[in-house]
Amino acid sequence: MRGRLSIPELGGARAVILHRPHANVTALVRQLEAVGLHVECCWPELPASVRGADFLFIDVDTAFDDQFPWRPGDAPLPTIALIGSEAPGRIEWLMNFGVDAQILKPVGDNGVYSALLIARATFDARIGLAGEIQNLRQRLGQRQTVVQAVAVLATRGKTENEAYEQLRGMAMAWRVSFEEAAARIVASVSDGRTDKDHG
């Protein structure tokens, strides 16, 4: 069960706005500074320093893929879309790019604080989920390695259970994890060593 979310402290955070000079930018900067954020505006180039920022605001109406030094969906910070147009092509770009929150234009006198909080929570959840998926893939790979190692050890007339217990004993003798012992066995076969080397 997921833990209860809490509202992060935003004072002192840094936001980058990728948008042409416009009244919407002026309104956005005013709200961000009222919350306590430091703001940097840029167009059309995104500064390399954006990776050190806490939030990125992008103008979906004019943004394009080449402005970003990462693949769509891989933004390294919470990203908030400023949306004015509902043209299908722009919405499709937005969905493919992947953002964590959105604000409809014209930007008024409110809505930025909640967008910041939603973007932060969505980004953190996305990163956490990506980490869990990576961990599951790694564990799946380790299980496959264990199966391969047991198969290697079972080639000399041992049953699967006997080979499994031999692998467990080797892990204890080598003082490594079960998975590490399995990886050593599989690697030894790739290196051309024989089953005799496994004791």
Primary descriptors:
Arc Repressor Mutant, subunit A, five-stranded parallel β-sheet, Rossmann fold, single chain, alpha/beta, 47% helix, 199 residues
Structure description:
The chain has 2 domains: 14-110, Response regulator (Rossmann fold, 3-Layer(aba) Sandwich); 138-198, Arc Repressor Mutant, subunit A (Orthogonal Bundle), CATH 1.10.10. Helix content is 47%, strand content 12%. The chain is built from 5 helices and 5 strands. A 5-stranded parallel β-sheet has the order 2-1-3-4-5. Helix 3 (112-153) crosses helix 4 (160-174). The longest helix is centred in the middle third of the chain and has 42 residues, at 112-153. The chain starts with 13 loop residues before the first strand and ends in a 9-residue tail after the last helix. The mean pLDDT is 88.
The tally of domains stands at 2
- Can you say what the CATH homologous superfamily of the largest domain is? Response regulator
Alpha plus pi helix count? 5
Major beta sheet, specifics? 5 strands, parallel
Helix content: 40-55%
**Uncertain stretches of 5 or more adjacent residues:** none
CATH topology of the largest domain: Rossmann fold
Report the C-alpha radius of gyration, rounded: 26 Å
Spatially, the strands of the biggest sheet line up as 2-1-3-4-5
Mean pLDDT across all residues, rounded?
A: 88
